[in-house]
Design goal:
mainly alpha
Amino acid sequence: MKKLILPLMIVAIIVGLYEQTKEKPNVFILAIAVVIFIYGMIHLSAKTPSKYSETEDEQDNDN
């Protein structure tokens, strides 16, 4: 799934930037590009561990 999300995000960025350069950009296309980009960022960052997770676990074990 991660291999599909990253190219989809790149395409959304390119489409959004291209649409902004037009004289009259379509707001719906821009909104869809932003939603796809944010959705992809959420999925990619969901697997990143918190830097505080170990310190919280250690504090819980100390008490």
